[in-house]
Design goal:
Elements lengths: L1 E6 L6 H13 L6 E5 L1 H10 L5 H9 L8 H7 L5 H12 L4 H6 L3 E8 L5 E5 L5 H10 L9 E3 L2 E5 L8 H6 L2 E7 L14 H7 L4 H27 L2 E4 L14 H27 L1
Parallel strand pairs: 1-2, 1-7, 2-3, 7-8
Antiparallel strand pairs: 3-4, 3-6, 5-6
């Protein structure tokens, strides 16, 4: 039976996921495929490249640099996370991504993006770390309203979390019968409607499908979270989630806070590691 790994997004809550993944790698936990959404894609690629500690390292190193993230980047580049710096300068020059290991690892790695013209999820299997594949990853993690749509081929894309926040069903339909799901919200979390809906409608006026997806996202997310619980109770899904809210912002400039969230992920993974070994061994 094929085993899959599902990685939710959540911006800097993704450091929790990074902590979990590093413990999995240290314990040689293997999967036949993985899917990442937003930060789950941008950070999760390091599971396929087997680079323990890389996510925490470069986030702590660059979290205070304007070209990495922040409102100065948004004003000067149109992206709150700098496209060139994050997806080209860091992985190819400053903290090198292991493209060869990624390419040679047979594990499928899907990233989820949202087509801004249809509002539907698009799933791309990254087989390499070349420029086109990096653009798919960037699209998956490009938050609406604070990022420019990413053009790939004949369409444009933004954050995959708008259309498929927890793509467990996608993996099941791909034939992954047992899945480990890493969430970045605690079990009792309920997503509520955005308070700034009028502002969202104004900022997304050129992309009505994006506006609709964002308005419908809370109900979609809550339904997916409920489905995850159903699968967890059935026994074909194992869920790793924080035990309490992580309370970290989408942009975080304090390296100690990033370390704290990462440590929470490690702690929860270590608490469950024997269970994970047994689940993935079958």
């Amino acid at each position: 039976m094929k085993k899959g790994l599902v990685l939710e997004g959540g911006a800097m809550r993704g450091l929790f996921t990074a902590g979990v993944m590093d413990v999995f790698l240290e314990n040689n936990i293997r999967f036949d495929g993985a899917v990442g959404v937003s930060a789950g894609a941008a950070f999760g690629c390091n599971y396929k490249s087997k680079q323990i500690g890389r996510v925490l390292r470069y986030n702590k190193r660059f979290c205070n640099y304007w070209k990495y993230s922040g409102f100065r980047s948004l004003l000067l580049t149109g992206d709150i996370y700098g496209a060139k710096f994050c997806y080209y300068d860091i992985p190819f020059e400053l903290d090198k991504f292991d493209c060869e290991t990624f390419r040679n690892n047979p594990m499928d790695f899907y990233v989820v993006a949202t087509d801004v013209h249809t509002g539907k999820a698009v799933y791309h299997n990254m087989t390499d770390a070349d420029n086109e594949n990096m653009e798919w990853m960037r699209a998956s993690a490009s938050m609406p309203m604070v990022s420019k749509p990413v053009r790939i081929g004949d369409s444009e894309y933004l954050d995959g979390g708008m259309a498929d926040s927890i793509p467990l069903e996608f993996m099941q339909k791909k034939g992954f019968g047992k899945n480990v799901v890493i969430l970045t919200q605690p079990e009792d979390y309920v997503k509520h409607q955005f308070s700034a809906i009028p502002l969202i409608r104004f900022l997304t006026r050129k992309y009505p499908a994006v506006k609709k997806a964002m308005e419908e996202r809370p109900s979609m997310y809550n339904a997916q979270a409920a489905y995850v619980k159903v699968c967890e109770e059935k026994g074909d899904t194992l869920v790793i989630r924080p035990r309490s809210p992580l309370n970290v912002g989408s942009i975080e400039h304090d390296p100690d806070e990033l370390q704290r969230v990462y440590n929470e992920g490690r702690k929860e993974a270590l608490r469950r590691i024997e269970e994970v070994k047994e689940f993935t061994a079958c």
